[in-house]
Design goal:
CATH superfamily of the largest domain: Enolpyruvate transferase domain
Radius of gyration: 21 Å
Largest sheet: 4 strands, mixed
Oligomer: single chain
CATH class of the largest domain: Alpha Beta
Strand content: 15-25%
Strand order of the largest sheet: 22-23-1-24
Number of helices: 12
Distance between the termini: 10 Å
CATH architecture of the largest domain: Alpha-beta prism
């Protein structure tokens, strides 16, 4: 039976040890898009076993591709379709996977066929209009079928391919719109230039996209626009990705919770398989912890954080916004307030990761001021609380850190971590020397 809640007891001593986290969700779904669209077979290793991966793989299977997923070995073998799925039609259920619906929408708009993409109720509240408008600039025929909220899914695609040329896409809501267009661009009939309008949030994820594309044989050029500081990206077309062997890094966002355990308990935790040169911008969370007073050690195949007395900081988290929920519990135990800025787009993720996060931290006794673009967290006296997770994996994982310092923290719907880290509470429990208490 699915557990309704989970608890950890406060740790009796500083947490010390090593951890290895699963493969990156972000890299896994980018690699699956490139491999599926490629010519030839690809072998992906280090593949994350999660709901998001299941959704992406099942979508490509529905479209007729041959995939073999060895979950124990963390390997996917996939025979690419060369840019045209064998089954050129399908009704695809995407659950609440933002990367899947945005990347698949762009990729399928570059093919010939009829497709519909939909998900859970929350997915019908997550924006996709900027991606639709950007793809239309390139000749795509697609629209939202959401009559009550036409900026959101479901999406209906009449695939007629992309003619190429110049497109614009807003950068202030999600970098996934730009990443999706970049990955689809090689299959256009002519080269593509994508101009980003406004601020580009989470820019490291776009750089990650370009790096994954490069591994599959397609280069991306990026330049500042002539009349502004905004960027534009150029991709030659028509081209094809080439099947290859591709190793996926451990997930930097997942690693943040283990570094956070070191920070919040004054301990020492090493995460294996990551380095300062990782593709994922979220390893930059370690820099945030250093600003708060922690020490970091970087190796060729590990990053270690040593917890020290924590001080509050004023920090722009735009580039690593998925780690805001990790920072918030740590800030609760720092000396002085912490102001988190630059993450207004977090309101449009699995849940409102500003408003809902503030609501739950207040239940514990934190003094939280909500801003349009973030939060201010003022440390206080804490007490037991039952915390909602809003079916958001990052809520559940971050709240475990509060329980390491505060008795009686009950986290609801713990299996929502299946989205990116199904065994999170077990792995964290091994590190802190406890078995998670499920009810």
């Amino acid at each position: 039976m699915k557990p309704q809640s989970v608890q950890f007891e406060p740790v009796a001593a500083p947490v010390s040890g090593k951890a290895r986290v699963p493969g990156s969700k972000s890299i896994t779904n980018r690699a699956l898009i490139c491999a599926a669209m490629a010519r030839g077979e690809s072998v992906l290793s280090g593949v994350l076993e999660s709901e998001d991966t299941e959704v992406m793989i099942e979508a490509w299977r529905t479209l007729g591709l041959t995939l073999h997923w060895d979950k124990q070995a963390e390997v996917v073998r996939i025979e690419g379709c060369g840019g045209q799925p064998p089954t050129p039609h399908g009704d695809l259920f995407i659950a609440n996977s933002g990367t899947s619906i945005r990347f698949l929408t762009a990729a399928l708009a570059a093919t010939q066929g009829e497709y519909r993409l939909d998900g859970v109720a929350r997915m019908r509240e997550r924006p996709i209009a900027d991606l639709i408008h950007g793809l239309r600039d390139l000749g795509a025929d697609l629209r939202s079928e959401n009559e009550s909220n036409p900026n959101c899914p479901p999406v209906r695609i009449h695939g007629r391919g992309l003619h190429g040329g110049v497109a614009q896409v807003a950068g202030n809501v999600s970098s996934q719109f730009l990443s999706g267009m970049m990955m689809a661009a090689p299959y256009a009939r002519a080269p593509i230039a994508i101009q980003v309008t406004g601020e580009l949030v989470s820019k490291p994820y776009v750089e990650m996209t370009a790096a994954v594309m490069q591994s599959f044989g397609v280069s991306v050029e990026s330049h500042p626009s002539e009349n502004s500081a905004n960027l534009h990206y150029k991709i030659n077309a028509p081209m094809h990705y080439r099947g290859c062997e591709y190793a996926i890094e451990p997930d930097g966002s997942a690693a943040s919770y283990f570094w956070g355990a070191a920070a919040i308990t004054g301990g020492r935790v090493r995460v294996q398989g990551l380095s300062r040169g990782a593709l994922q911008g979220d390893v930059g969370f370690v820099d945030v912890l250093e600003k708060m007073g922690c020490e970091a050690i970087y190796g060729e195949d590990f990053i270690e954080v040593i917890g020290k007395p924590l001080r509050g900081i004023d920090i722009d988290m735009n580039a690593i916004s998925d780690t805001v929920q990790t920072l918030a519990p740590i800030a609760m135990f720092a000396e002085g307030p912490t102001r988190i800025r630059g993450v207004a787009h977090n309101r449009h993720k699995e849940t409102d990761r500003i408003g809902d996060l503030a609501k739950e931290l207040r239940k514990v006794g934190a003094q939280v001021t909500e801003h349009e673009d973030g939060l201010t967290i003022q440390p206080g006296a804490y007490h037991p609380a039952v915390l909602e997770t809003y079916h958001d994996h990052r809520m559940a994982m971050s709240f475990a850190l509060i329980g390491m310092r505060t008795p009686g923290i009950t986290i609801l719907d713990p299996r929502c971590t299946n989205k990116t880290f199904p065994r999170y509470f077990e792995v964290m429990g091994e590190l802190i020397g406890q078995s998670p208490c499920y009810r």
